[in-house]
Amino acid sequence: SDSEATYQIALLAPPFSPLTLIPYTAASNVLQFRPPTVLFTAANWTENVLVAVHAVDDNVAYPSPNAVDILHTALSDETAYSELTVPPIEVHITDNDAAGYFLSRKNLTIIEGEYANYSVRITTRPLSNVTMTVLGEGESNGQISVNPMVLHWTPDQWMEKRVVLVRAVDDPFSEVAVHFSEVCCHTITSA
Q1: d(CA 66, CA 168)
Q2: What is the distance between the alpha carbons of residues 138 and 75, in angstroms, rounded to a whole number?
Q3: Which of 11, 56, 65, 180 is deepest in the core (most CB within 10 A)?
């Protein structure tokens, strides 16, 4: 994303009425065009018009490369041109976004019976809802607990952080002054 390519449009015959060609894609907000419309008249129909195509940097991680067709709407009072079908132009977009997550803290020091927290956020806007399961290694041996164990994001909430509360369980056993348990796994699923 965030790069540019060009193509040219030309007519084979003069229009009797002005012809406007509007480039677009079926997927919105993926490409931008400069100029956004191309106007041909009887005076300029012989000129090749250069159209710049810009891949939008959108914070969405698409499969890469992502094939997108450029289509054109033709507007004219002249039937031959208003019914014009311009063949699609296939564009391959290499995305610079990668799906992932960010942890506000990688280490916590907690006294038994006390709590600490860290936040999690996903790094790109998802195309569908995202669920993250938080698993604590210490949960199996009763050393820590995490809450919540499941975090959710929608495409509209992707920039919001989620807070995970970690509790060091206060057990009756005498243990080494400092011992380690891990919140070992953050597993993400999405449609």
Answers
A1: 46
A2: 66
A3: 11
Location of structure tokens 């677009």: 24
Instruction: Give the phi and the psi of residue 106 in degrees, each rounded to 5.
Output: -105, -15
- The pLDDT, as a whole number, for residue 170 is 82
Closest C-alpha to 23, from 5, 11, 41, 9:
9
For 80: left if phi > 0, alpha if psi spans -120 to 50, otherwise beta; the answer is: alpha
Q: Is residue 139 pLDDT above 80, yes or no? A: no
Which residue from 147, 138, 148 is spatially nearest to 169, judged by alpha carbons?
138
* Among the ranges given (76-80, 88-92, 120-124, 182-186), the one the predictor scored with the smallest mean pLDDT: 182-186
Find where tokens 């790094």 sit: 123
Measured CA to CA, the distance from residue 181 to residue 136 in angstroms comes to 8
Amino acid at 90: E
